[in-house]
Specification:
The strands form six sheets. This protein has a five-stranded mixed beta sheet, covered by helices on one side. Strands 12-11-15-13-14 form a five-stranded mixed beta sheet, with helices on one face. 13% of the residues lie in helices and 31% in strands. It has 393 residues and is α+β, with helices and mostly antiparallel strands. The chain contains seven helices and 22 strands.
């Protein structure tokens, strides 16, 4: 997780706007412009102590100042020499801008794709600097990036804050000439599989728990079970023999905050097992299909439609509704016959099958057919007691 963020190209240009939080430092070139009652333009390079020298004023400290802050300082200092700078009537305007951009030489060490010295854009933060060098090796840490200056670690960056929550605290850390960006090897990486939003391999810091790991994945899917299976490799220093190297533990969701993950662990979040909660209705109803098993037979029949329709209900055999139910061997070996009138007293259980039959007398009207030398040959309704003479008539 995370290494793909660095596998991309970044194109910087000389006309990139100066970031509002960019702070001046040694080697930066600035251009000071005055216009109005006084017109001039001068260029300065900030020395290693963060100072520029202005004639008739002396040294002015601009180290670690933004362009806006440096403008205010220069406006105050130069107003001592140019009184019109603060004159509202015959005023002189002052503007400060960055001059020619100077690339920064930075050393990269450890688990980076291209270790060594690299020339990077001066507006780069640590993230974009690593992108410009080709990214981090898979065996390198993304959570313990070190910015070293004059032999001292001045910042440690955890990119998971950015990948997971979008917090780019590193963007305000300026990289200076001669800095070292060091990527140490990863010390704890574990795999999580199953019903989480983003399964994969994740880096964990000392003391981080299973709960932290789940947060990094984005959380559980709606299909996640309550128990999590953890396969742990026992650290070398804790083993009693080479046979005692693996353990399997089942963790409940409420225990994840207290369960610390060891290097090389595999965590599996299983799916919940399907549990039947419905019955199936088949046959002569308006809406056959599946219905909740929590209802009585009458409630299901009424939902299915037809029993309370005066015309439609004439086609239903209300006196014999068949329910098939699983027996102990899980076959549908149990059969119940219930009338619609008694259906409110019959409780259903999951997987019941309900059969509603059609009254054959409703559609199958008895007929006879007469053909040959008669005036009206064809099909005629049969009447009880009818004779051949009646049919001919």
């Amino acid at each position: 997780f995370g290494y793909g963020y660095f596998k991309r190209k970044i194109n910087f240009f000389d006309n990139v706007p100066t970031p509002v939080d960019f702070k001046l430092g040694a080697g930066d070139e600035i251009i000071l412009s005055l216009w109005g009652e006084i017109n001039l333009q001068e260029e300065f390079t900030i020395n290693k102590d963060g100072l520029i020298y202005y004639q008739n004023i002396g040294f002015i400290n601009l180290a670690n100042k933004t362009i806006d802050e440096a403008e205010l300082i220069l406006e105050e200092k130069l107003s001592q020499t140019y009184s019109t700078i603060k004159d509202p009537k015959n005023s002189t305007k002052l503007m400060l801008e960055l001059g020619k951009l100077k690339s920064v030489n930075v050393f990269f060490s450890g688990q980076v794709s291209n270790p060594g010295i690299h020339v990077i854009h001066p507006f780069s933060d640590i993230f974009s600097a690593i992108v410009q060098t080709g990214g981090v090796e898979v065996k390198g840490s993304l959570r313990n990036i070190q910015l070293i200056r004059n032999g001292t670690i001045i910042h440690t960056i955890d990119f998971y804050d950015f990948f997971v929550d979008g917090k780019s605290s590193f963007s305000k850390i300026r990289i200076l000439e001669g800095d070292v960006i060091h990527i140490p090897p990863i010390t704890n990486r574990s795999e999580i599989l199953g019903e989480v939003l983003n399964p994969g391999y994740y880096e964990l810091l000392p003391g981080e728990s299973l709960s932290d790991l789940i947060v990094y994945t984005g959380g559980f899917t709606s299909n996640a079970a309550n128990n999590i299976l953890v396969h742990t490799i026992i650290p070398i220093e804790n083993r009693t023999s080479t046979d005692d190297t693996h353990t399997y533990v089942s963790i409940n969701l409420q225990e994840t905050e207290d369960f610390i993950i060891n290097q090389g662990s595999t965590i599996r979040v299983d799916s919940i097992r399907a549990m039947s909660t419905r019955v199936r209705l088949i046959g002569r109803v308006k809406y056959p299909g599946y219905y909740p098993a929590s209802k009585t037979l009458k409630e299901v029949l009424d939902l299915a439609g037809g029993f309370n329709d005066p015309l439609y209900s004439q086609s239903i055999r209300k006196d014999e509704i068949i329910i098939l139910r699983r027996d102990a061997s899980q076959f549908y070996g149990l059969e119940y016959k219930v009338s619609y009138e008694d259906s409110d007293n019959f409780d259903l259980i999951p997987d019941d099958k309900i059969f509603i039959y059609e009254d054959s007398k409703y559609r199958n009207i008895p007929t006879i057919r007469i053909e040959g030398e008669v005036n009206r040959s064809g099909t005629f309704a049969f009447k009880q007691g009818m004779t051949i003479a009646d049919a001919i008539d």
